[in-house]
Design goal:
By secondary structure, this protein is of the alpha+beta class. It has a domain at 43-138: Roll (Ubiquitin-like (UB roll)), CATH 3.10.20.30. Helix content is 22%, strand content 19%. It is built from three helices and five strands. The protein has helices at 3-17, 67-74, 131-138, and strands spanning 45-52, 55-62, 93-96, 99-102, 115-117. A five-stranded mixed beta sheet has the order 2-1-5-3-4, with helices on one face. β1 and β2 (55-62) form a beta hairpin. The chain is globular and about 45 Å long.
Amino acid sequence: MTARHSEEHKLLRISAYFGLYSSLSDCPVLAIEQLPSNTKGTRMAVMVSMQVNGKVVSHEVEERTLLVSFIRDVLRLTGTHIGCDTAQCGACTVHLDGRVVKSCNILAMQADGGAVTTIEGVAAADGTLHPMQEDFRQQHVLK
């Protein structure tokens, strides 16, 4: 599958999940294989792969898994928090491909193929805290 088709496949999965099209045949994305039908009461699992804090990770998750849940529950990186559940507080903020995103507001499969940096990933390789982490420590911040 080419990179373009891979990206279109991801968009098709996301669009199908949110019910943006009444059927997959209505979806304008072309040249993509049909996805298995999601029968009532069952959840489809998808394989997501991404780079998190410089390490490549792959894991099968439910298609509805939020990026924050993937980071916390699957990867056990607990510096990314669930705060308000409305994407307003910023406790779930991470970098995705160099852009600041609120991980409670996107699906893990939307980050598939991307590079994610969490608060744990900004420290130096020798363990020296990043200035932001050091300020958090000095001010007793509970991010």
